[in-house]
Automatic annotation (TrEMBL):
<dbReference type="Pfam" id="PF22768">
    <property type="entry name" value="SPP1_Dit"/>
</dbReference>
<dbReference type="InterPro" id="IPR054738">
    <property type="entry name" value="Siphovirus-type_tail_C"/>
</dbReference>
<protein>
    <submittedName>
        <fullName>Phage tail family protein</fullName>
    </submittedName>
</protein>
<feature type="domain" description="Siphovirus-type tail component C-terminal">
    <location>
        <begin position="134"/>
        <end position="220"/>
    </location>
</feature>
Length: 242
């Protein structure tokens, strides 16, 4: 797909009796819509109430027709011109799919028996289906959380046998996020509220997994500590139009 060009019309309401109202508004306008601050994320809502966004570049300063300094004007019309090198439209809300996690098991009022109670239990599923309802393949965020020591976590695409593996030992409380988006590939460890780049810990045989359009089956695994790992996949559907 080629880049997407589009214009957005806007109106400025005169809410001041100051003789310099147009200069004040123009200064504010140029400050916000500055091509030097590209790219710009544009959020919008459809008539049906669904929320989306697109990343675009402002190709020029805001265009204002003649008559800006007309003291009798109440509304001033203007135009913004954009180009989106990434033509896809993204759903605003991220979709999270859990593969393995700990489920809470407490109820109130609480009664503790002599032999003790189980306050949580392990989700038994190791395989999950992630449905991509978008128009094209997309990357994802893979999130690993360790409850105890976990050695070399990995995520496997059951359909293609492709896998993304880390040569890394996670400690209790560690959180790892891996981005597989094209041009935005990262691997970050959060330990004791400090973020560390661990991109070099990705196994050289790994594939930066993508979500194909439709169903995608994934399974997680580790070399040691399987019962102590939580795994989630986060993604947004990408659309060519709404």
């Amino acid at each position: 797909m080629e880049s997407r060009d589009f214009d957005i019309e806007f109106f400025i309401y005169r809410n001041s009796e100051s003789i310099n109202w147009y200069e004040e508004k123009r200064h504010e306008l140029f400050k916000v819509f500055n091509p030097l601050k590209n790219p710009i994320r544009i959020d919008f809502v459809t008539k049906g109430g669904k929320e989306y966004y697109i990343d675009a570049e402002l190709v020029a300063t805001p265009s204002l027709p003649q008559g800006w300094e007309n003291d009798n004007q109440v509304w001033q019309k203007g135009l913004l011109q954009f180009n989106a090198s990434d033509p896809f439209i993204y759903e605003k809300n991220e979709i999270k799919t859990d593969i393995a996690l700990w489920m809470p098991n407490l109820e109130f009022p609480l009664e503790v028996f002599e032999e003790g109670i189980e306050i949580s239990y392990r989700s038994p599923s190791l395989i999950v289906n992630v449905e991509n309802k978008g128009s094209d393949d997309t990357g994802m965020i893979i999130r690993f959380i360790a409850a105890s020591q976990v050695v070399n976590p990995k995520l496997l695409n059951v359909n293609t046998n492709e896998e993304l593996k880390l040569n890394f030992t996670m400690l209790p409380g560690d959180l790892i996020e891996i981005s597989t988006f094209s041009g935005k590939r990262t691997a970050t460890l959060k330990r004791n509220n400090v973020k560390i780049n661990i991109f070099g810990k990705i196994d050289l045989s790994s594939t930066f997994l993508q979500l194909r359009v439709g169903d995608n089956l994934f399974r997680y695994d580790v070399d040691k500590g399987l019962d102590y790992l939580e795994c989630s996949i986060l993604h947004r559907n990408t659309l060519i139009g709404v």
